[in-house]
Design a protein that fits this description.
This protein is of the alpha/beta class. The protein has 2 domains: 277 residues, Rossmann fold (3-Layer(aba) Sandwich), CATH 3.40.50.2000; 199 residues, Rossmann fold, CATH 3.40.50.2000. Strand 2, helix 2 and strand 3 form a beta-alpha-beta unit. The two termini are 33 Å apart. Its EC number is 2.4.1.-. Belongs to the UDP-glycosyltransferase family. InterPro entries: Glyco_transf_N (IPR058980), UDP_glucos_trans (IPR002213), UDP_glycos_trans_CS (IPR035595).
Length: 509
């Protein structure tokens, strides 16, 4: 199969030769999973590496490149040495609809396997591109799910690090559940499972911790992912030492891997323009948004946003709206991605009833900008790790509403370990939601009660806010010069450079 390669951005021309490391900066190739929640932190990582003196090649596909165009344009204007490379995505070869190049564009469960099969077909065109790249690459950093990059790195004699987008808590708990075969010992999906090897007792429902990769039909891909992780020379994580200290320690000890936590990556740039450019183009003018927030008292506004994949049924939208209307007059910003005509009609009436107190954003919102504003004092979230970490970095407590994947485990980290959140009461995973007919899982009373617990003060609310602010201060310090994440980034770059020299020497011999 031949893939067309389209190169965007600018690279640094240098000479080849055995002395190239003395003549030029290290060159990293970043290969994210084609999913919005995985792409965003990898773009932040690219900018961090470039700011630290590296050259970066960022691998993407046409649809994904179009989505990150705002931040890519800012990078070009800034002069950072980052090149965005578009590989043609082989959708047709695996039976995917044209343009289905990201996880959030998958419309049914039976398309997940073809999607990952299509990703693996990028191996040959990536290898071809990298073999002809000038300056030549020194290290590949690939999303942990891109196990196919292991053969690319091996064939080119390059060191390879894997990037874990989720929390270390999720990664470690999933590893322990597999090693202890905990799920096999539990019969029913709604039966409880105690998470093994944790310093405190945490209990969940089996259905909340079963991963799609645990299913029999995914066994081959699951084995390939684990093998690729085992052969990687290091692990990069979007977290920080002070947030998950015991978890990182146990993960290192259990796997024997060198692990570099270098987050929160959302704190890469503090400027409003940089935060607003993360992800896709915003659906609201930033100045209009900041003007509205400026009219609200400190810590008074709750943000409601459920990420790029989650959708609500009409009945669930109504219950969320009812809870907000009953939540003691708390001002709110609600990011709505549902598109059904009936949902849009209901939202218009809700918007009119809450005019002045609420602001609705239809589509993509500059979440990091909103969370960083002094007026925002709470965040109702699906507990995706990017969103969770953005709230931690901003020092904002959370109302937790997990939907699927790593999110139920992230909720436990937020609520029971860090104690900076209140659960809304969601129990069952939801992914592909019928926007019209699916019954609401969470009632308005639960929504209103959770919002009030976080926003209305009292001893519980104040303690949560104090803990959240403390973590926010630690998050900011860890990204500064001398902070743990800053130092981990330097160590990772040094190891990549050293291992490349070792590989190059073996090839020369």
């Amino acid at each position: 199969m031949t893939n067309q390669i389209v190169i965007n951005g600018s690279g640094n021309e240098t000479s080849n030769g055995s002395s190239r490391h003395k003549q030029r900066p290290p060159h990293f190739v970043l290969v994210p999973l084609m999913a919005q929640g995985h792409m965003i932190p990898m773009v932040d990582l690219a900018r961090l590496l470039a700011d630290a003196g590296s050259t970066v090649t960022f691998i993407t596909t046409p649809v994904n490149a179009a989505r990150i165009r705002p931040v890519a344009d800012r990078i070009r204007l800034s002069g950072l040495p980052i090149t965005f490379v578009e590989l043609r995505f082989p959708a047709a070869e695996t039976g995917l609809p044209d343009g289905c190049e990201s996880v959030d564009l998958i419309t049914s469960a039976d398309l997940f396997k073809p999607f990952f099969e299509a990703l693996s077909l990028l191996a040959d065109p990536l290898k071809l591109y990298l073999s002809e790249l000038t300056p030549p690459p020194d290290c590949i950093i690939a999303d942990s799910m891109n196990c196919w990059t292991a053969s690319v790195a091996r064939s080119l004699g390059l060191p390879r690090f894997i990037f874990h987008g989720p929390s270390c808590f999720f990664i470690f708990c999933s590893l322990m559940l597999r090693q202890h075969k905990s799920l096999a010992a539990v019969a029913g999906d709604l039966d409880p499972v105690v998470l093994p090897d944790l310093p405190q007792r945490i209990e969940m429902l089996k259905v909340q911790v079963v991963r799609w990769m645990d299913r029999p039909e995914w066994e081959k891909i699951s084995q390939e992912v684990r093998a690729a992780e085992a052969s990687a020379q290091g692990v990069v994580m979007n977290t920080f030492e002070e947030l998950e200290p015991w978890c990182l320690e146990r993960f290192r000890k259990t796997t024997g891997k060198t692990v570099w936590p270098i987050g929160p990556l959302s704190l890469y740039k503090e400027e409003v323009e940089s935060k607003a450019a993360r992800g896709k183009a915003s659906s609201i003018d930033t100045e209009l948004l900041l003007g509205w927030l400026k009219t609200k008292p400190a810590d008074s506004v709750v943000l409601i946003s459920f990420g790029s994949l989650s959708r609500n049924s009409l009945s669930q939208l109504v219950e969320i709206g009812r809870g907000l209307e009953e939540a003691a007059g708390v001002p709110f910003i609600w990011v709505v991605k549902e598109t059904a005509a009936e949902a849009a009609s209901w939202m218009e009436g809700f918007e009119e009833r809450t005019k002045g107190r609420g602001l609705l954003i239809r589509g993509w919102a500059p979440q990091a900008v909103i969370l960083a504003h002094p007026a925002v004092g709470g965040f109702m979230t699906h507990c995706g790790w990017n969103s969770t970490l953005e709230a931690v970095a901003a020092g904002v407590p959370m109302v937790t509403w997990p939907r699927f994947g790593d999110q139920f485990l992230n909720e436990k980290l937020v609520v029971e370990v860090l104690q900076i959140g209140v659960p809304v009461g969601a129990r069952l995973p939801t992914l592909f939601v019928d926007e019209m007919s699916q019954e609401a899982q969470v009632k308005g009373e639960q929504v209103g009660e959770a919002v009030v617990r976080v926003m209305a003060g009292g001893m519980e609310g104040e303690e949560m806010r104090r803990r959240a602010r403390g973590l926010g201060e630690k998050a900011r310090r860890t990204m500064e010069e001398g902070g743990s994440s800053c130092e981990n980034l330097k160590r990772m770059m040094e190891v990549a450079d050293l291992q490349h020299h070792v590989h190059a020497a073996k090839i020369k011999i």
